[in-house]
Specification:
The complex is a heterodimer. By secondary structure, chain A is α+β, with helices and mostly antiparallel strands. Chain A contains 15 helices and 12 strands. In chain A, strands 4-7-6-5 form a 4-stranded antiparallel β-sheet, covered by helices on one side. In chain A, strands 1-2-3 form a 3-stranded antiparallel β-sheet. A 3-stranded antiparallel β-sheet of chain A has the order 10-11-12. Chain B has one domain: Rossmann fold, CATH 3.40.50. In chain B, strands 2-1-3-4-5 form a 5-stranded parallel β-sheet, covered by helices on one side. The chains are: A alpha+beta, B alpha/beta.
Chain lengths: 415, 156
């Protein structure tokens, strides 16, 4: 299955950044039939900061602005909600409030300085941004990374997935007033951040990845301690989650909230848990195939409950994946050394990673050792379109369940 | 069948007894009236989201901030401290000023600039009662240490 995740303007015309069963590829945009092939072609081409900006009029219909300063959604973003009362008729999302010119400030910098910026596009996806950016530079400069570096990057991406998924489920539990469940999940979320710090020295896995290598490979007692930590985390989460699912009040709030049909999800170009919740596989798990591919979990509901179920399953899978590989990491032998071509100072590179909320890709050029034309493609931008459509027809009290279940962020969408 | 939560919740003690130390000293002396009752309003002006996540982590049972009388509030009109996350994005300057104008006296402002070298963000406008300016991503323990300094509450 081909999924369009972005459109790149180059001097030789536009190119479509497409995922074909998890493998990234560029296709020349010949302008013919693309709208029919890719349902998200028009909005990705326009790449507007105002999503679904089509006002609704009618008897009693008014516009209600939510944001940019609210405590419901702490991030700076605005929802323009069209309604005549309880029902949301349309939700226009404005991303411009959080626009920080991240892609612009990466231009004409050294790859290392660009990497520093990429990590800070959305700090809770720091590892995903960092790996996608560094892999793009490595492709451009024909740097061959060592097997050890590749392995560690995969493990750290799983560590990122765990704490992000815990955060999403914690938010959903809190929104449904499940105080005890939310408090315990919040404690697990903090534990996951502490495990990150134990492994890498950073709670958000920042500063460990570099171009062509890791700044330091986690090793020794800290790794073995982390194994025990992930074991406890998986066990506690499983018991807690089963307990939580026994509560019909909680499930009723999520069931049929923000439902997307498989056709809608596919045509919007969704990837990650939001697509898999509609029963469709995106093939992103194959990006880790040189270690062992992660098992893929799918659900058929397409609603907030299905998205939460996917994330819950992935937390346990990722913990198990980390436990299995961290245990043996001390015996990993770096039999493939990093190879850098010193004569190579330019080129084009692109890469995609399996971030906690879907495909996250970069496309960039390197000229005379500096990065140019940096194009990040984030799951949150496409996810915002999905949220906007999922909110149509929902009632106000469903708002947090729909928004939080997609696990997307304004800072990631507006880069 | 619905399972009873309270038993599950009471079985484990998650709250930690630690010393919480602020990474910075307060710029000005603060009033004593917030002793054991300090309400915080959070405003994300342009952070990279790590700070939003750290605030969520601060609400976890390990820190149990309510035992010190510290709460997050949903309205600036009920708040004693404005915690500004990140340096402001251009569009957020006006909402930031508007929020400050809604605070009841006395109040204090804390800023956390998680990415001081970022050229795409604005400088802070003039901030009244700006008692602390942090840089980088402080841990929840450090943020709690700073809040305890402001409220003049015992640390344990």
């Amino acid at each position: 299955m081909k999924i369009l995740i972005g459109i790149i303007s180059t001097s030789k015309g536009d190119k479509l950044y497409v995922l074909d069963d998890g493998q990234e590829m560029l296709i020349n945009d010949d302008g013919k039939n693309q709208k029919d092939i890719y349902g998200n072609y028009s909005f990705l081409k326009k790449h507007s900061f105002k999503i679904n900006d089509y006002p609704v009029t009618g008897p009693g219909v008014f516009r209600f602005r939510y944001g940019p300063v609210t405590s419901g959604i702490r991030e700076a973003g605005v929802f323009q909600l069209y309604t005549y009362g309880e029902k949301i008729l349309r939700a226009t999302i404005d991303l411009s409030w959080k626009y920080r010119e991240m892609a612009g400030t990466m231009q004409m910098t050294s790859p290392e300085a660009g990497l520093l910026m990429a990590e800070r596009v959305c700090s809770n996806f720091a590892m995903s941004h960092s790996v996608a950016f560094s892999q793009s530079v490595e492709t451009a400069l024909e740097i061959k990374t060592s097997l050890l570096t590749k392995n560690w990057r995969i493990l750290l991406l799983e560590a990122e997935r765990i704490y992000n998924h815990l955060y999403v489920i914690y938010k959903l539990a809190a929104a449904a007033a499940q105080k005890v469940l939310a408090a315990h999940l919040s404690a697990l979320f903090e534990e996951a951040l502490r495990l990150n710090e134990q492994l890498t020295g950073s709670r958000y896995l920042m500063g460990i990845n570099s171009i062509g290598r890791l700044n330091n490979n986690p090793s020794g007692p800290a790794v073995q301690k982390a194994v025990d930590g992930y074991k406890n985390l998986a066990n506690t989460f499983t018991r807690l989650y089963e307990h939580g699912l026994a509560n019909y009040n909680f499930l009723d709030r999520l069931h049929t909230s923000g439902t997307l049909t498989p056709d809608m999800a596919e045509s919007m170009g969704l990837t990650g848990p939001s697509l898999r919740a509609c029963g469709i596989k995106d093939g992103l798990n194959t990006t880790t195939s040189h270690l062992i591919s992660l098992p893929v979990i799918t659900q058929s509901g397409g609603d907030a409950l299905a998205r939460m179920e996917i994330r819950a399953g992935e937390i346990v899978n990722s913990c198990q994946y980390l436990i299995d590989h961290l245990r043996t990491s001390d015996s990993w032998i770096d039999n493939e050394e990093t190879q850098i071509r010193k004569d190579k100072t330019g080129g084009t590179g692109y890469s995609v990673v399996n971030s906690p909320s879907g495909a996250l890709g970069y496309y960039l050029n390197v000229k005379n050792g500096n990065v140019q034309d940096v194009n990040p493609f984030t799951p949150s931008y496409i996810g915002m379109h999905a949220v906007s459509h999922a909110l149509e027809g929902a009632i106000f009290t469903d708002f947090p369940f729909i928004f939080d279940s997609f696990g997307i962020h304004f800072t990631d969408a507006s880069c | 069948m619905i399972k009873w939560w309270p038993l599950y919740g009471l079985r484990r003690k998650l709250t930690e007894q630690k010393k919480y130390i602020s990474p910075v000293k307060l710029r000005n002396a603060t009033t004593k009236i917030f002793h054991r009752s300090l309400f915080i309003y959070i405003l994300d002006a342009g952070s990279s989201n790590a700070l939003n996540f750290e605030i969520n982590a601060l609400e976890s049972p390990q820190y149990n901030i309510h035992r010190f009388g510290i709460y997050f509030t949903d309205s600036p009109r009920h708040a004693d401290v404005l915690l500004i996350l990140g340096r402001p994005a251009k569009a957020m300057l006006e909402p930031l000023k508007e929020t400050i104008s809604q605070f009841p006296e006395p109040f204090y402002i804390i800023t956390i600039d998680d990415f001081p070298d970022h050229p795409g963000l604005m400088d802070y406008p003039e901030l009244p009662n700006h008692v602390a300016a942090l840089t980088g991503v402080p841990s929840p323990s450090q943020i709690l240490g700073l809040l305890l300094d402001i409220s003049k509450t015992k640390r344990r």
